[in-house]
From TrEMBL:
Lineage: Eukaryota, Metazoa, Chordata, Craniata, Vertebrata
Keyword set includes Magnesium: no
GO annotations of cellular component type: nucleolus
GO molecular function, one term: metalloaminopeptidase activity
Pfam families: Leuk-A4-hydro_C, Peptidase_M1
GO biological process, any: proteolysis
InterPro entries: Aminopeptidase_N-like_N_sf (IPR042097), AOPep (IPR033577), ARM-type_fold (IPR016024), M1_LTA-4_hydro/amino_C_sf (IPR038502), Peptidase_M1_C (IPR015211), Peptidase_M1_dom (IPR014782), Peptidase_M4/M1_CTD_sf (IPR027268)
Protein name: Aminopeptidase O (putative)
Domain of life: Eukaryota
Cofactor: Zn(2+)
Gene label: AOPEP
Family annotation (SUPFAM superfamilies): ARM repeat (SSF48371), Leukotriene A4 hydrolase N-terminal domain (SSF63737), Metalloproteases ('zincins'), catalytic domain (SSF55486)
Record key words, sorted: Hydrolase, Metal-binding, Metalloprotease, Protease, Zinc
Amino acid sequence: MDVKLDPSRDDLPLLANTGHILVKHYVLDLDVDFKSQIIEGSIVLFFEPGNRFKKQSSSIEETCQSESNEACKFRMPEPCHNPVTHTSTFSSKMGYDGFSVCGKGVKDTSGKDGNHDNWEQASGISSSKYCCDTGNHGSEDFLLVLDCCDLSVLKVEEVDVAAVPGIEKFARSPTLTVVSEELRNQIIRELVTLPADRWREQLDYYARCSQAPGCGELLFDTDTWSLQIRKTGTQAATDFPHAIRIRYRTKPQGRSVTWTSDQSGRPCVYTMGSPINNRALFPCQEPPVAMSTWQATVRAAASFVVLMSGENSAKPTQLHEGCSSWHYYVTMPMPASTFTIAVGSWAEMKPETCLSNDLATERSLSSSEADFRYVGVCGHMEYPCRFQNASATTQEIIPHRVFAPVCLKGACQETLLRLIPPCLSAAHSVLGTHPFSRLDVLIVPANFPSLGMASPHIIFLSQSTLTGMSHLCGTRLCHEIAHAWFGLAIGARDWTEEWLSEGFATHLEDVFWARAQQLAPREAQEQQELRACLRWRRLQDEVRNSPEEMQVLRPNKEETGCVSDSGSSVIKHGLNPEKAFMQVHYLKGYFLLRFLAKRLGDDTYFSFLRKFVHTFHGQLILSQDFLQMLLENIPEEKRLELSVENIFRDWLESSGIPQPLQRERGAAAACGLARRVSAEVAKWIRVNRRPRKRKRRETEEVFEKVRHRWCELVVKHRYTKAYKDVERFLQEDQAMGIYLYGELMVGEDARQQQLARRCFELTKEQMDRSSAEVVAEMLF
């Protein structure tokens, strides 16, 4: 589709000033209300100042732009009345289990919102009479900028962490005897830097601090993309409160979560991989460099199950009749964009016979619980790492659970449940240690716009993967499992380098799936070559039908990974609704890795890949980190003309089909399996040309196995008797159905266009915003 790109719409701003101050930990305390479709509560952020405190000659031009020379209207705090803290505020039973306490703080029920003006700016905030700024500029106040969108912020306050009983052991300086900002910040500095083997104590004190009273409201305001917070008289990030509490509520139309119904017609809400990530779920630092840990307590009606990115397999705690609380935590620092939540009437799907990988083994095998036995040196920041846990390194199948609506129980038991163990085992055999200690798999509602999505400790799968035989489910499951290593444990430092996640997952899904099926080497090679042929055709179609500027895997070129002095940046094309449906990063990345694996030989390549994973897990990378290490491990005789510069030029920084790939595909002879498929296609073409003496039998079972292709053929040949199959597909398989809308419209057949518009009217309210925008552009 030919689309004129609008940078104000297509580029996603990341405004958080991570160059000045970094969030190290989030504590969320939330209530989910399905009646109002609102999530409400508080989030406590624990900070550590960054290392960029340079003075700048210009005032606040970088992230503070003026609008009509009007002053920025900050909400003024009301007089602060600090409550008296009693020792009984914290249960004596908390101990190291204190972080599971589910008690709520006092809500601000005033309903006021500090967002006085909606300036509709793509970035920045207005200049202020308070001389607010994002850094330290002499007499100007330091300004904290968080990524935030579609939230009603009710109150922002400093947290009096010094009031927490027992916290005094973190006050290292004997001279700080009076409670002060300096004392509170010193306590937080000690808390966020505790060694990894004290992770449980650290989570306990994070929870205790999150429940401490406030000690002064802070000025704040919001614009389209950010929340800005300041404290009068605080001029440097080092002096800014290191623990703040934000009380807020989401909006029903917020773009980070989707309120919908599951396949059984019951209400649910979940994060569906929005282009704006989680900033409409909680105020946060979106740039990937802001790697943090989190813990969350979520309350919902007792009939609901809460699933989340968390190391623990949470169980509900009944608070009172009709209400339950769920608690999850993560000790591995990751970008806030990887946080995921799903709340619904899910049922846990269990196999009919008990498998050996029962969750009872979790306690002895998770990185957080097992004794540390260091088996190597890691390059990441300190956390309880499974790569340093001898038990975890040999664990082929991590504990896992499957959740879905009850109506899909049969499909899950028939297809999904039996596939997870061999796919996990295959992944371990290729890459080694599983980065995460457990896995939940959720079959998400029909409006999910993709076949799958991976987050820490949880995978979302579309119901479309359960259709037919196991191949679609198995390959997609392998793809999402691969993201545990590439995309999560190893992330891209610049989100425009999406190929570092999707290219690797696409390449590895074939390898994992072949091993999961226990194919003989020749059979595995033929299967992979057939899939390469199919992907080659898809890539050719994609290149012909997409804007050239969106075909480039490294669009920022030498500026890749660069941010402003404050840490803010933009993600090129990040808001373009079509980007979510493009596969160029998957396909070109896949063919690059396949090209490199062939050059080295599979044994050498995958041996290197395990070494790369061990070196870079828990870290963010750029393309050159991978390529430089790879070339250092290639023998001189195999390197030939390969260099980082040549790969950038040929594969990553140019649009269209890479020249080395064109030469390779032009010279490649079709494998035996591909030849058999071609022969079968030719046979059926001949059969279809013969005169028919009998009516075709419509076999539902066949349709279920090849429904998408069948619908394409129905549309192409205008087979009106099967239009009902197309309607059903568009409504039940939205993850794949979006492409059919284009087929229905391009033929300019009035009946087909009417069908497309009718289906869109029935489903548009449930679609995610990006999908709805793309389809609407096709139809109207």
